[in-house]
Here is the input.
Amino acid sequence: MSTTVDVAPAPHTTPEVIAHPSRVGAAVLSGGLTAALGVAGISLGIAGLFHKVASVHIGWLVPLVGVQLNLDPLGGLFVTVTGAVAVPVGVYLVGYARHEHLPRLSLAVLPLFVAAMLLVPMAGSVTTFLLAWELMALASLALVLTHHRRAEVRTAGGLYAVLTQLGFAAILTGLLVASASSGADTFAGLAAHLDRMSPGTRSVVFVLTVIGFGSKAGLLPLHAWLPRAHPEAPSPVSALMSAAMVNAGIYGIVRFDAQLLGPGPRWWGLALMVVGGASAMYGVLQASVATDLKRLLAYSTTENMGLIVLALGAASLLSSVGARDLAAIALTAALLHVVGHAAFKSLAFLCAGAVLAFTGLRDLDQMGGLARRMPTTTVLFGIAALGACGLPLGAGFVSEWLLVQALIHAPRGGDSTLALAMPLAVGAVALTTGLGVAAMVKAFGLGFLARPRSEGAAKAREATPSMVIGMTLAASVCAVLAVAPVAVGPALRHVLDTLSGIAVPNTPRLGVMLRLPGAGSMSPALLAAALAVAVLAVIALAQWGARHRPEPATVPLWACGADTLTPRMQYTATSFAEPLQRVFDDVLRPDTDVEISHYAESRYLVEKVAYRAQFTDAIEERLYRPVVRGVLAWAGWVRRAHSGSVHLYLAYGALGLLFVLVAAR
Amino acid sequence: MGWPRRIKRIGRIVESATGAPGPAVAAPTAVTGSLQIRHVDAGSCNGCEIEVSGAFGPVYDAERFGARLVASPRHADALLVTGVVTRNMAQPLRNTFDAVAQPKVVIAVGDCARNCGMFTDAYGVVGAVADVIPVDVTVPGCPPRPQDIIDSIRSVTDR
Here is the structure.
């Protein structure tokens, strides 16, 4: 599809290059359309959250079944989130597309992609859902392949295409099995005729849909497309995919496995917890050793989706033992984390895009010193990184706190599954959060602070106004979520009401003070206020204490006795992550190499020490390669059957006919 | 063997403290006993280093008197310089001296640091420490005894 388009190679050209007027128009049109779709999505979603929206049936659009659109609070939440991601991305796109010369096809597909993502949660029947899903997958694939002249982009696109289509095949099979066995196409019909499905069939549908939706959400072991596709896609596309599209996977799991099929047997919840916990830990571990900024963010997406699925699994498990108060807390944590992750991850990818556009760098080892040259972007990335850390004042804090509260207050007593699963889950969340802080400190500290480590970083300049406005929009959502989650409280309560299979009316109250039934209470707003007061007090005390000190002298920086401090003396992303790499050597399996070259005169004098470390995804290496080898071997066998001989093919036809005749006798 | 029994078997090994040697120089402002010291090896044969580490070891235990070796001149009140100043170390020594906050004290330890010792007129030598940076206290000896090094530190803090 993209081969027909004239693509300007996307070098990181100097800003003096003036964009062609028609390109400017295309960028403004595409960005404006995306933002308008986002606004429409937000208003539609809010309408769906708080009011009863009439369902729409368009019979003529698809033969036999038609298109069924239906908006309930659960769909409304995801439509709102997608819309809220699309607005800043649309604004940002105006500046980004002009600067990066995005081809027209990508600019045209981008609003289509947003529309498809908005349609997925609005679908009211299996057919409509699958249509919207496939439209979303194809549009995102076209966008990933924007710069398809580069070989890495084509590899990433191929991997993404295979994984997303495999996932689609799993979802298709699962939903068709569900639809056939219950005899209904609409979701309402599925829910009404659930009793026609045997428990075995329901479990088969559960496994198939979790595999399919997991591949979209980037869960283990089908996560491999995320760290490949995100770095190669244009940054607004990465932001949309990582902040909005992966949510579609979570939506699928909540809609089908929690709402329509659920409540299921206990192992469903346990399976979700295992998959989620493993994804969270593996994702964050890879993020903490990654040196490519966008790859780091992509792995962080796997981590956060893992946490959300862990929370969903915990909700299901808690609900099955009757702790429905805690199940409601876990479910709230999952939904709030969907919202928070969308906010901070879209911001992070937009900032990474600004850095890439104005320095040409994605490698953290080459960056540095951007705080002086791109101050606004630095502050905004800091907000995103704080959100991804899960620390107070970050957008991810409240949801992670809710999750931990739900896990540690799990009822004690006879149930050994629960007694084993919950402490392990707390450990997984703790490890994930800790390593997440390390990964984000690395991304922010080494990428933006200190001195520039390369020419590109030294020549950086601030992003264009439209990009800054787009990023600021996303950052303000982050700030609201961090300090006042009360803003989304009513919406989440409406969603929980629709998920009455798991949750209870006594849902946690997300007021200014978070009060959880049967668990703790906390106030992010008071926490923020206390922190601000403490910082001001320390500054004031320091000023007061320094009032008698002499004037400060300006001296050169200490360079360990050398005359000047060079950028090579700084930490790099690789050296920062080296201890972690050692600790988790067995999981990461890094390919490291130290090469020492000596002077010709004496082998006791070292001329150069070269260190090289390469991180390949261990799961990709060990799981995917054998599968690909097997498929190739099988294809080789199949190829022997069609040798090109017409006689042989006629014989196949005759045999086939004979078989049909015998079978149908 | 548990560590309490080991302590009991070994007993007290630290040398008993002698009387304060009396002030050699005025202690830097705000130094009232504890002295943070940055050690610089300007070209020593490492004989003095062994004695310095002895002075800060468990037997002589200079930290009893408030002396501490620190990792950066930015943290230090005093410089402890050993060895002759070699050509390669002359500028780093000046830089280190500049990096210590005012007011500061320089203690030159050993004969080489005092007057170049046996390395006088050697080809790679710039001179004694006093030829490069101002020196306040000197400790003679090749190498000096740990007790002398401690006394020089105590003469700064007057403890």
Remarks:
- The first strand of chain B starts at residue 35 and ends at 41.
- Residues 47 and 143 of chain B are 6 Å apart (CA to CA).
- Chain B is about 30% helix and 20% strand.
- Helices of chain B lie at 3-10, 47-55, 87-99, 111-115, 146-157.
